Every structure is written in C-alpha cells, then in structure tokens.
Amino acid sequence: MTRILLAEDNEDNFNMLARRLSRQGFIVIGAENGEIAVEKAASESPDIILMDISMPVMSGLDATREIRDNPATRSLPIVALTAHVSKKDRDSCFDAGCDAFEGKPINFRNLMETMSNVLAIKGKQLIAAS
Amino acid sequence: MSQNDNVLDQETYDRGIAALDQYLKRTSTRYAIVRLVCNLCFMPLVAFATDFQHLGLIAAWAGIVILLEAVAAVRVFRYFKNKKTIELGPDGSINGKILSARTVSVILYLQVLVPTLLMTWAYALPGLFLWALPQPAPTIGAMMTVVVMMNVAGQHTFKSSLSIFSAIVPSIALLLNLQALSTAKFEPYALTFGALIIIQSVAIARAGHRSFDHMLNVMFEKDKEKEARKNADEANLAKSQFLANMSHELRTPLNAIIGYSEMMMEDAEMDARDADVEDHKRIILAGKRLLLNINDILDFSKIEAGRLDTEIGQFNLDIMVREASDTLYPMLADKPVKLTIDLPENTPLVWSDRHRLEQCLLNLLSNAAKFTHEGDIVVRGYSKEIGGFDGFVLEVTDTGIGMTEKQLDRVFKPFSQADESFTRKYGGTGLGLVISQRLIQLLGGEISVESVEDKGSTFRLHFPINVQSSTKGLDEDTQANRDRPVVLVIDDDADVHELLSRDLQTIGFELHHARSAEQGLQKMRQSQPAAVVLDVHLPGKTGMELLHDIRASTDLKDVPVIIHTVDSERAKFIKAGANAYLCKPASREDMVAEVVRHARHDQHPASRASKKSKTRPNTDRASA
To answer: Is B601 in the A-facing interface, judged by CB distances under 8 Å?
Structure first.
C-alpha cells in the first residue's frame, strides 16, 4: 500500500483530503507543519509526499529543500499542493525541488493521476488496499 | 534599496551625458560665434581709440584669441569623435566600480573642462590686453575681466538664475561707469564697447544654462522621478501581494467545501440516495462557479496591473474547442438548445497560449449558454490571415436574447453587464468579455461582436496561430539545481524541443536539448539522461547512426532511447536497439506514457547532486 505523507496545516483541508485518500485505500501520515513533514519524511518512510506550501513553523518550500538536502529522503516524490496558483508560485515550487504541482481547490482525479505519474517516474506504483 | 539611491543607473547616466554634450555643442558653435564676433569687434574699436598706435599688440591679441578658440574647437571635436557609450553594470557600476551619481557627474565634467577653460580665457583676454594702453582702457579692461570671472563663477553655481544675474549686474555697472571713465578720445566708442560686453555676458550666461549645474539638475531631477516611480511600484507590489493573498485565502476554504461535498456525493452515490447526490452536486457546482468568479476578478486585477503573462505552446485547436464545448453541456441540459461544432477537416496545429485561448472561448460559450433559452449555439472555425500572418477565427453564434446598440457599446467595458438587471437575473461578474478581450489582445488577436436584439449574437475571436514564445535559452540546460531525472531531446526542430519541454517538465522531468547527433552524444556523456528522445533526420550524422553508436558504446549502452520520427519503419528502429518508437508528431499522452515507462529512475547525476547546497537564494519566503 502506498504511504502518503500529507503535510497540511489547515484542519478542514487536512481532514478532507486524509479521509478521501484513506477511503481510496492509501495509508495517510499527517504533518501539520513543514518541520514535522521533514522529520516524518525521514522517520515514517512514506512513498510520496503531498506538500502544502503555506504552513507555520516551516513553509512547504523550505521543507522541500530540507528533504532534498537529506540524502536519505532526496529522491522522495513531492507533489506541491497549494492555493498559490500563479505561474511564479508554480515555478518556485519546482525550483524548491517539487516534482509536480496541483492547485487548490484540488481536482481529486487529477491529483490521483499526478501521484501515479510522479511515482511511475521513480519506478513505483500507486497501490491502494482493495 | 536605500544604499542604491545615489548609485547611477544607465538612464540617468545617459541623460547626464546628453546634457553635457548639448552644453559643449552650444558653447563651441552658437556661442563661439557670438564670442568671436564680440572679441574681434573689440579690436578695431581699441585700434581707433588709440589712434592705431598699438597695432602689433592688437594683432597679437587677435592671434591668441583665435588660437585659443581653435584649440578649444579641436578639443571639442576630439571629445565627440572619441566618445564611447559606456554601459553600466546591472548594479550601476562603471568598469566594476560603484560610484554615486554626483561623483560621476564631476568626472564627466572634468573631461570637458579643458575646452571650456580655453574658451573662458578667450573671453577674459580683452581685459588683459587693455592693460598696456592709456587710461581709461586698463580700467575698462579690469572691469571686463571681473565681468567674465563673475560669469564663469555664475556658471559653476547650482542655480542657473544666478549665472544670468552674475552676467547682467556687473555688465550694467560697467556700462554706467564707462561714461564717467571715458576720456574725450575714448568716449565715442564707450557705448559700443559696453553693448558688446553685455552681449558677450549674456552668451556666457546662456551657455551656463547647459553647463555642469544643469547637468546635475537633470540627473537629480531624474532621481526624483525615479523615486516617484519606485513609490508607485511599491504600491503596485502591495496590491499584487494583496491579490495573491486574497486568492490564497479564498481558495483554501473552497478546497474544503468542494472536497467534502465530493466525498459526501460519493457516499450518497454508494448508498443510492439520489436526492442527496443532486444536492451535493449543486454544492459542488456552486463551489466551482464561485471559483470561476474568483478567477475572473483576479485575472482582471492582474490585467489592470499589467501582470498577466502567457505561456506559449503548441496544441491542437480541434481538441481544445471540443473540450471547451464539452463543459457546456451541463448548462444546456434542461433547455431546448442545440450545440453544434463546425470545424474544418484539418484544423492547424497552433502555437499560442492554450489555457488563455480556451478561457476566451469558454467565456463566449458560457455567455451563449447563459443568454440562449432556445435554439442553437454554433461554434464555427476557419482559417483567416491576421495582419499578414496565419490566423484563425473562432465564432460563437447563438439565438439568444441579443443586444441593443446601446448594450453593444458597453459590452467590452469593465463592470458593466449589458444591463444591471442582468446581474440579478443571470449572475456573473460582468468581467468575462473584458477579460476575453484583453487576453486575445495579449495573444495578438482581436474580438468582435455582432448582435440583433431578440435574434442572437455572434462573437468572433480572431488570432494569429504562430505566436512567438518568449521562452529563452532553449539551448541552455537551465535549472541545473533541480534534482530531477533528465530527458535529453535530440532533434533539429526547435518546435519539437519546445513542445516536449512543456509536456515533460510538467510531470517532473528536466529537459536537456541537442540539435545534432554529435551534440547529443556529448550531452549524453555529460548528463547521463534517464531517457533520450531521438529524431532520425538530423543534420550530419543521422539518428539511426547515433543509435548504433549508443548501443555499441560501453558507457551509454543502457540509456533508454525513444525514437521520434516521421519514418514509419518501427521494426527497423526496435531491431537497432530503440526501446520505443513514436510516429511524429506524437500525442502528448503517448509521449508521456513512453517516457515514463522507459525512463531509468536511478539516474541522479553526481554533478548535479553536488550543486545542491543550503546557500541557494531563498527568494520564496514571500509566498510562504
């Protein structure tokens, strides 16, 4: 089963997405800020990270950079998930090291597709419990 | 920014130079003539006044005046001949040194000081030569020298009015004194002498207008303008920042609203609670409509602030039109309105901004759907030149409520739906058409409308289909610090590079580019790509030959190669060792699928990984 680290500080959005992903049969690990996300990226061995950008303590961009700087977590796929949707915002996500970008409000089907593509590039599959 | 306030920028520098040049030109042409004429008139006057007793002295005087002027003229000529345009560095530095605007203006002035001084001495000379003559000539001479010196001093003050003041006052004093000082012999000439001195003084004063001080004024006035512009920029930035925040704050709750509703709709679907499904659908639809309105308002604000940019890429018009039209069906579901798409057989592949063009078309379509209660909506497309370039027209015709002439006049004006009661009846921000108009203009096109009240309307988008992309540096492998798998595209067609860049970058690859087989081989060794997309028809060595070389090599034989060509001999390429074959032009989906399938996922070239460091400029905090 694919383990998804969901970094999101907004409670509503976290609950919503965590539930939707769990219902699809994924294991969801939560992180309510960037710092926790960096820790859990190393300790919880997720397969993929969904990263909100505006978060307290440490932003998603900084968290992404930290994850990329750590050899143990360097190659983890990271999908930026943010309500900052301008081209500039998107570029800064890619510059920080995100592999893909999904704008909020989330189109759930697109998100699933993106996750599966990003995993496929790293030679993995998106696996749900049946 | 505060430490940069006094540092030059190119524009200020150029303006300063221009002011200086103008000064020099005037001083050495127009004012030089006045000067010379006055000086040469002094001489016969003095000769008469002294009964031609001192002709040798006068000749020497004339000679020296002419010599000085000539030397000055040569210096000026040489200055203009050797003048080089100096390009300032981006930080305002000249040859690597950062200097304040004031320092630079002093340096510049020193360059032209020599010719200026020569000319000034020419002014002062009459005074000196009169020393050798009987009274009152020496007294008059002394006063003239004082006048000239005051004039010169006036030139070097910071107020141009002072230079005129210093020219006029002593000249008048001199004139008043001449009468008293004159002997019988000198009297007839005194008045003329005085007049000449006044003319000369005024010439100097006028030259002073364009002098050093003037140059300083010009440069620092420019600074004031710059300050005003900076303030305006800051206000603009604050506005953009506010809009970006608003966008984020509006989207975040919408994300929860739409997400939860979708989840509850799925629940209701599973339990076959049909009524609930419908309700949730309505919430979702309302949420999405709200999102559209938010987008409209933000787009409009960006257009107003001139901050909307385009992303040019290649796409199929046919697909875009059909996808846009598909979104219309739900709006027409409960109305007797038929949607027809009428496109030519072979719609061209288009270089433009797909997203923005689709946005325009969607605006027209949703308007048509909104205002048509029965009848037809027809989307028609045809090729038509625009401004001498290949172009295309997309037309949306409806049999809706149409518009009166008065309404037609206002249709592209912001904040005015044709009628205010429209907003109550039909909703929407009233910005759709304004945005469409600005977007299509941004893409080099235009929008037009014809309408008859109660009969219907026709909106027409006319746009060029080969918009030049502003994407720079295709040949440079940019963004080297992204630790993403590399796909190397070897193709001599720039369009292919552009197209693949867009398709593959968005899903997480880094693109490198080569235009020939030789360059491709070199870049493969450099970057150890996760996959290669290879064209067969290349200048020089062909793609087929390159493929053989790759498979025969020791270091590159495992690199996945995807052949992308117009040739149809799939078997030949696969046999030669290609991992996949795609017929050109491959669809985005096929290309993505093949690259994802074959790309090696363990390739993180050490050269790139080592570039990663914590010293990366952290410019993104603002958005965090």
So the answer is: yes
Minimal-distance CA residue of chain A relative to B309: A87
Identify from A104, A112, A113 which residue to disrupt to test chain B contact, counting B C-beta atoms within 10 A and taking the largest count.
Answer: A104
Contacts of B135 by beta carbon, 8 Å cutoff, 6+ apart? B183
pLDDT digits (tens, 9 = 90+) for B419-473: 555 555 666 667 788 888 888 888 888 899 998 888 889 999 998 887 654 443 3
CA distance B228 to B237: 14
Taking the C-alpha atoms of residue B214 and residue A113, their distance in angstroms, rounded to an integer, is 66
Give the integer Cα–Cα distance in Å for B166 and B155: 9
pLDDT tens digits, residue range A37-58? 999 999 998 999 999 998 988 9
* Rounded CA separation B174/B269 (Å): 107
Q: Is B406 helix (H, G, I), strand (E, B) or coil?
A: helix
User: What pTM was estimated for this model as a whole?
Assistant: 0.47
Chain A residues near residue B244 by CB distance under 8 angstroms: 84, 86, 89
Q: Which CATH number fits domain A3-121: 3.20.20.370, 3.50.50.60, 1.10.10.10, 3.40.50.2300?
A: 3.40.50.2300
B-chain residues near A112 (CB < 8 A): none
CA distance linking residue B376 with residue B337, whole number of Å: 5
The ranges assigned to domains in chain A are 3-121
φ, ψ dihedrals at B579, nearest 5°? -80, -30
